[in-house]
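User: I'm preparing a small set of examples for a lab meeting where we compare how different chains pack in three dimensions. I only have the primary sequence for this one, and I'd like the structure in token form so I can line it up with the others. Please keep the answer compact; I'll paste it straight into my notes.
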Amino acid sequence: MCPRGARLLAGRGGLVAPARLVAHCLLIEASEGLILVDTGFGTGEAADPSRRGQPFRTIVRPRCEIGETAIRQIEARGLDPGDLRHILITHLDLDHAGGLGDFPDAEVHVFAPELATARAPSLRERGRYVSEQWAHGPKWVEHELDGDSWLGFDSVRLLPGLDPEIAMVPLVGHTRGHAGIAVRDGDGWLFHCGDAYFHRGEVATPPTVPPGLRIWQALTEHDGKARGHNQERLRELAREHRDEVRLICSHDPELLDGG
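Assistant: Understood. Below is the structure token output for the 259-residue chain.
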């Protein structure tokens, strides 16, 4: 995604130069199949720009190349997209759920409030959800909180029959049913926080964020108070469990590049 305003959005570059934002997905190779955290844009968006919506295309300027879609990335790694068994959705914004139709046989795990809002969005929320992305009728698996705990956060433990330990953690604020996905990785955890924050500096102490991203988050948030509270909890997690947990978010390109 290449919105104008690199200096405001990335902290460097020209005022009208394009910034670089990404849609950061996570592929998990489990013993019984593949698991995907978010789908980014899919082949449908690459083929039909109108599915991204005119305001989104004008402001965010996404460059949807079919080779960058999750299904093509999986194929490029020599894996079979037909082996994808589960999709774990942080939230159903159009830049996170566009590839659902590329994996029609996968179970799609989502918090129930998020799916309910996407199915019947308010006037303010209609621009963020694109129902064509799930017109194929996904195999929804709706989750409510069941009382589990993960490092001080409420959570739902997912897929107990598979080898990776996975927790779905509510991080409400950006959307009504936003989730983070924590995956056991060796002796530690990789925590995909979706859009709970947009820039790596937001979970540092003290926090920093380019002003354009701060404004962007405020304009797109469902509940600013809840979002701010969860960001503070993520900062505590990063401080107190730095040797145990690595945090990533969806749109920071340096995190996608391994920074």
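A couple of notes for your slides: The chain has a mean pLDDT of 93. Residues 173 and 227 are 4 Å apart (CA to CA).

User: Perfect, thanks.
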